[in-house]
Design goal:
Largest sheet: 6 strands, parallel
Helix content: 40-55%
CATH architecture of the largest domain: 3-Layer(aba) Sandwich
Mean pLDDT: 93
Low-confidence stretches: none
Distance between the termini: 12 Å
CATH class of the largest domain: Alpha Beta
Strand order of the largest sheet: 3-2-1-4-5-6
Radius of gyration: 17 Å
Amino acid sequence: MRAIIFDLDGTLFQTEKIVIPAFQKAFIWLKEQGKYHGKIPTEEEILAVTGDTIDHLWDRLLPNADIQVKETMNKKALEIELELLNKGKGELYPGVIDTLNQLLKEGWNLFIASNGLGPYVKGVLHAKGIDSLFTEIYAAGEAGTKSKVDLVYKCIEAHQITKGYMVGDRSSDVEAGKKNQLCVIGCQYANFPQFGEVDELKDADIKIKSINELLKVITP
């Protein structure tokens, strides 16, 4: 099977428009419950962990909290994210729908592999009307995998993918693609926030400035 495996946040979806308000509201709520006494994370601090595995994300934002507090926060943040999605908040990057449809016409099978929680990942795809474009959706929160490498491997094995691409914006996407023998396309979209470190995509095979550039760089 020929396939393209996409990350979600920072690749197809402008996650900062959901994650920043959701996380900040969740931290305010946690303080009101008397379970947190620190400062509310800044936009930059939240963006820096966007796309990380759930465990790593809360280890960085709540480094001194016990597991119960982290789990409580995880549920609250998800609840707020889904509320925002139901209100129509959040946007796909320009050109996403047209690009995905064209790739389907060219015979590619499309997959999602995200470090996010299953309800969030599926909620975004459904809210934005693109869930039906993907053969299958893999979310680390549901798959029980500890890394993006394992998540992508699970997808490749299940569907016997023999040729493909990994498309994402974080170093974990690059690592997942490389270790699973996929060509890695790194997304560094012009005029949009970048997540993680400055050199996140230094090892990507190809870098693109907009999603529709995929149609130029992906070969049959």
